[in-house]
Amino acid sequence: MPHRTGRRGFLRGAAAAGLAAGCRAAAGPFPDRTPPAHVIDTHTHFYDPSRPQGVPWPPKEDALLYRAVLPRDYRALEMPRPADAAVVVEASPWVEDNQWILDLARDDPFLIGLVGNLPVGTEEFPALLERFAANPLFLGMRIHEWEWKAKLGPAASRAHLGRLARLGLALDLNPAPPRLPEAARLIREVPGLRVVLNHVANLRIDGNDPPEAWRKGIAEVAGAGPDVYCKVSGLVEGSGKKDGQAPRALDFYRRVLDAVWEAFGDDRVIYGSNWPVCARAAPAWVTEQLILDYAAARGPEALEKVFWKNAMAAYRCRFRAGGPVGRKPGGLDRGVSRIRPATGGALFDCLH
Fold it and tell me: Per the count of CB atoms within 10 A, which of 1, 95, 168, 195 is most buried?
């Protein structure tokens, strides 16, 4: 899908009431800088409550999220620098919803992979992992804070994660801040495991210095292994604001971003929007603009890394033929490939 023309005067538009009009104005996401060559959004959710079987998440009571949310809806968003590709993170606990996303991705080259949801620690897990790992669009799986003990408590769970690592797949972790030392310990216990920490560990962000316990936890996770990454997603949600009222000034989030970059460096920080969940707090463009501005100030190479190069390293994903990049002369790849080698802060609002 061709990109929309970018925007001019984004900050002026952001301050005005007519944000959408500001987004649609002409040339470029931030006029004094060059945008990244590519953007991979590594944290999106797609689902359709109108399916015969419905959906387990989001609940019907969620007036904002309970609707069909599909790739075409994401591509219709006005963004500072529209994404070339997206990674889907499965929020449903239903095993067959992994297949539903893979079927969706099969016919849509904009989707370059799925971080699935599988019952690690159970007798069913090995066969399910083999089944889904056979699809090159299956990039790994995720474990939430609220299922930590259920999935990581069983004796078999470490062996199961070792198998994940041997297959060249990634593990997304979505812990609360007090769980960070446990996350670091888990990483050390499973050699070779590539890990992506979600949503800056669900920190409550208030514009001040983040809690020292969270800082130490983030640093411990970053130091637990060479292949540990952090998604700078969940920022606006971390403010705790609703109805699109999250702060939009970079300075409100800067101290958290400083701590993440200090721990992980330019090579291990990844952009993700968490759309559509982010829309509870602010439109999706806000998160992207925050990271564009912060990363660009670190230099052009940092900008490229956080918006797509680090995603490829963490997930071993590639742009697909027929997608926005695959259609361009000199696109990075003509298909999907992946090498498979033989306490601080409070958890907020059930981020997905």
Answer: 195
Domain boundaries, the chain: 35-315
Cα separation of 102 and 304, whole Å?
27
CB-based contacts of 129, cutoff 8 Å, min separation 6: 118, 160, 163, 164, 167
DSSP line for 286-299:
HHHHHHHHHHHTT-
pLDDT tens readout for residues 49-58 = 999 999 999 9
- pLDDT score recorded for residue 325: 81
Whether the pLDDT of residue 14 is over 80: the answer is: no
Write the pLDDT tens digit of every residue in 204-261: 999 999 999 999 999 999 999 999 999 999 999 999 999 999 999 999 999 999 999 9
Whole-number average pLDDT of the chain: 87
| Helices of type H across the chain | 10-15, 19-24, 71-75, 95-106, 125-133, 148-152, 157-166, 180-189, 212-222, 235-238, 250-264, 284-296, 300-304, 310-315
Are the C-beta atoms of 269 and 306 separated by less than 8 Å? yes
pTM: 0.86
What is the rounded CA–CA span in Å between residue 318 and residue 333?
A: 6
Fold assignment, 35-315: TIM Barrel (3.20.20)
Could you give phi then psi for residue 140, rounded to 5 degrees? 160, -160
224 CB-near residues (< 8 Å, 6+ apart) = 183, 184, 185, 187, 188, 195
